[in-house]
């Protein structure tokens, strides 16, 4: 007999039983469901909706079910559809008719909403911890590589010299924003829908503030129809996860390029690389590639849940049961990616000489030469043209700007003097970036200090 079987004259088809059921995936919520139910039973007792003794029997029953699930003693059943009814059925079997009072003044609609919020709250806390680990790694790399010269790119063409420390601290900023987005999302997840009932509120004088307090929510959903219909908080989380994955994916793309023979800027640790089943020489950056690939799956999850919700009339609709697979999948994959990416980053070897060598080609000091002439009084557009001609000359003669003699410099502009030879050195180009937030050593030191202050305050 179904828990809702009263108005039915016939059993559901077994096809419908399995099609309708979510127990296969929502059993993940068992702990949150029980915690929510314990708080609900306590509130029912406190508000004299059931007796204190009944409330206590229910709470003890729920606690023993929780222990048994954790010990692996419980098998959930498809005929009880979802985690909520499976646990309620287990409770009734265990404590008898008193168990039938638990569902007073609530519906599965507010129950599932509170379960997901409890789950997501916990997961966001964990993900924030993982992000913090990654930020710490980036800050450490920023510190170690403040002097590691490398090419900076635009259009994947060598542009201006930077340091690897600076490049790492660019990612620090991205993941710091991701963390801020998650903190912000948490505020909205942490509002309690329980007590909303099916959609209209209930006829019992419940104490939802007490419930929120018991469950550690900062507030109660103000409109019960919204409380049971809303999945914005999950969509918001998956959006944040998508942005985070986009950052990881860009980073992975760079690491994949950098570990190719063409760049050879880094080498992944053997423990974070894989081989080829046919080509014995291969060492592949599979981990980075897989993170890049999983980004597609997280974007897919975002489209999935947005599309589920887009046409739903208020209030609850069964479509919403489909919110859980994309949410769970996002949480699990994001956590895996953050952990493994951090380890991969910590263990990679940086080929400083190769990075430095790459800055010798590509006329990366050309902008500095142009800036030099501006400081000698030329308008920027004119100096840009002069240096453009110098670069063309160098290309035609197979030279770098650094190979030009002072005589050659002055043949392009009389404004050049001896000091240009020092100014065009790659280290000088980096050191001369005096603007706030630049790649110069002092600027990176400021970033590291800001990062350390930030990390010690979160
Ligand atoms: N398993 C359902 C879900 O995940 C629980 C809520 C069911 N509510 C209902 N009115 N059928 O959405």
Automatic annotation (TrEMBL):
Gene Ontology CC terms: cytosol
InterPro entries, alphabetized: Arg_succ_lyase_C, Argininosuccinate_lyase, Fumarase/histidase_N, Fumarate_lyase_CS, Fumarate_lyase_fam, Fumarate_lyase_N, L-Aspartase-like
Tree of life domain: Bacteria
Domain Fumarate lyase N-terminal: 6-300
A Pfam family: Lyase_1
Subcellular location: Cytoplasm
Domain Argininosuccinate lyase C-terminal, first and last residues per copy: 363-431
Keywords for the protein's UniProt record, in alphabetical order: Amino-acid biosynthesis, Arginine biosynthesis, Cytoplasm, Lyase
Pathway: Amino-acid biosynthesis; L-arginine biosynthesis; L-arginine from L-ornithine and carbamoyl phosphate: step 3/3
E.C. numbers: 4.3.2.1
MF-aspect GO terms: argininosuccinate lyase activity
GO biological process terms on file: L-arginine biosynthetic process via ornithine
The UniProt record lists the keyword Metal-binding: no
Catalytic activity: 2-(N(omega)-L-arginino)succinate = fumarate + L-arginine
Annotated family: Belongs to the lyase 1 family. Argininosuccinate lyase subfamily.
HAMAP family reported in the protein's UniProt record: Arg_succ_lyase
Protein name as annotated: Argininosuccinate lyase
Source organism (scientific name): Anaerosolibacter carboniphilus
């Amino acid at each position: 007999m179904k828990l809702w079987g009263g108005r039915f004259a016939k059993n559901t088809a077994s096809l419908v039983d399995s099609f309708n059921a979510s127990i296969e995936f929502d059993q993940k919520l068992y702990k949150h469901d029980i915690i929510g139910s314990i708080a609900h039973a306590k509130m029912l007792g406190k508000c004299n909706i059931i007796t204190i003794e009944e409330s206590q029997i229910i709470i003890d029953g729920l606690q023993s079910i929780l222990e048994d699930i954790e010990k692996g003693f419980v098998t959930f059943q498809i005929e009880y559809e979802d985690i909520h009814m499976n646990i309620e059925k287990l409770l009734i079997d265990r404590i008898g008719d008193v168990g039938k009072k638990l569902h007073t003044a609530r519906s599965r609609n507010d129950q599932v909403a509170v379960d997901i919020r409890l789950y997501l709250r916990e997961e966001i806390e964990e993900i924030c911890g993982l992000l913090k680990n990654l930020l710490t790694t980036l800050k450490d790399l920023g510190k170690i590589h403040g002097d590691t010269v490398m090419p900076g790119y635009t259009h994947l063409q060598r542009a201006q010299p930077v340091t690897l420390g600076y490049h790492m601290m660019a990612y620090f900023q991205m993941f710091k924003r991701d963390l801020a987005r998650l903190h912000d999302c948490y505020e909205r997840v942490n509002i309690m829908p329980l007590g909303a009932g099916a959609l209209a509120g209930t006829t019992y004088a419940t104490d939802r503030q007490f419930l929120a307090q018991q469950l550690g929510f900062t507030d109660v959903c103000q409109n019960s129809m919204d409380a049971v219909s809303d999945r914005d908080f999950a969509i918001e989380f998956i959006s944040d996860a998508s942005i985070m994955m986009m950052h990881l994916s860009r980073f992975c793309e760079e690491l994949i390029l950098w570990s190719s023979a063409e760049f050879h800027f880094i080498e992944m640790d053997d423990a974070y690389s894989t081989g080829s089943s046919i080509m014995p020489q291969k060492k592949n950056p599979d981990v980075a590639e897989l993170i890049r690939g999983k980004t597609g799956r997280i974007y897919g999850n975002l489209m999935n849940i947005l599309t589920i919700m887009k046409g739903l009339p208020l209030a609850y609709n069964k479509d919403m049961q489909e919110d859980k697979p994309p949410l769970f999948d996002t949480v699990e994959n994001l956590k895996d990616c953050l952990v493994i990416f951090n380890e991969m980053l910590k263990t990679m070897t940086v080929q400083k000489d190769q990075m430095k060598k790459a800055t010798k080609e590509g006329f990366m000091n050309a902008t500095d030469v142009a800036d030099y002439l501006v400081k000698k009084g030329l308008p920027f557009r004119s100096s840009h043209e002069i240096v453009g001609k110098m670069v063309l000359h160098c290309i035609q003669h197979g030279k770098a700007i650094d190979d030009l003699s002072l005589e050659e410099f002055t043949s392009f502009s009389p404004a050049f003097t001896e000091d240009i030879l020092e100014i065009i050195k790659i280290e000088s180009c980096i050191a001369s970036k005096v603007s706030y937030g630049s790649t110069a050593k002092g600027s990176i030191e400021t970033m590291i200090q800001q990062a350390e202050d930030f990390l010690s305050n979160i």
